[in-house]
Amino acid sequence: AHRRKTLPELAEIATVNERVRVLNAERVEVDTRVSDLTRQQKKADAEVEWVRARRDRDEERLNSGAITNPKDLTSLQSELEALARRIGTREDEELEVMEALEMAQSELATVTAALTAENDIVAELTAKVEAANTTIDAEAAEARAARETFLPNIPEDLLALYEKVRANHSGLGAAALQGMRCGGCRIDINGAD
Q1: What pTM, to 2 d.p., does this model score?
Q2: Distance CA 13, CA 118 (A)
Q3: DSSP symbols for 123-151
Q4: How does DSSP assign 52-109, residue by residue?
């Protein structure tokens, strides 16, 4: 039971899981940024298209000859110039958003790849833990079988005391006495004991 709880892979899994948690938080943040920038890009595209459509409509009116009033012609030409400036501004904004989106998508790909690598490490470590637990289970079954062969030879009162001590001391019912030191609790005993 102690070996099962203290496998070194368990500590590694905890460390990797912490990195996974941090990467997941980063992935969510970058994914949100990508979504926001995608929405901004669509909005910028729609604005540019709307301004272009208005410019095309005004150019068509200008070129059709339907407007004969010089004041209206001057006003329409001024509006076309303003629309051209607005299109340039909107296209510049759209390019900035596209560049930011491309950088965010690249960052998202990097974080996703790192997250995948960390998850692969967790899967590998989990497989090692499962293999170690299988080995531990086999050894525990052997130990239980060996214990069962000794139980008939042990007096019942001694076995009852052993089980009571074992229940109160995390499964340790007996320990080796080496010199004056108990191998279970690591305390030196006095000469009288």
Answers
A1: 0.65
A2: 10
A3: HHHHHHHHHHHHHHHHHHHHHHHHHHHHG
A4: HHHHHHHHHHHHHT----HHHHHHHHHHHHHHHHHHHHHHHHHHHHHHHHHHHHHHHH
- 64-104 per-position pLDDT tens digit: 877 777 888 888 888 888 988 998 998 999 999 999 999 99
Each residue of 53-73: b (16+ CB within 10 Å) or e? eebeebeeebeeeeeeeeeee
**How far is the CA of 171 from the CAs of 106, 111, 176, 177, in angstroms?**
54, 45, 15, 17
Question: Which residue type, as a one-letter code, is found at position 162?
Answer: Y
- The span from the CA of 115 to the CA of 124, in Å, is 14
CA distances from 20 to 5, 79, 109, 112, 127 (A): 22, 55, 15, 10, 18
In angstroms, the CA 120 to CA 144 distance is 36
For residue 46, give Cα distances in angstroms to 100, 105, 191: 18, 21, 92
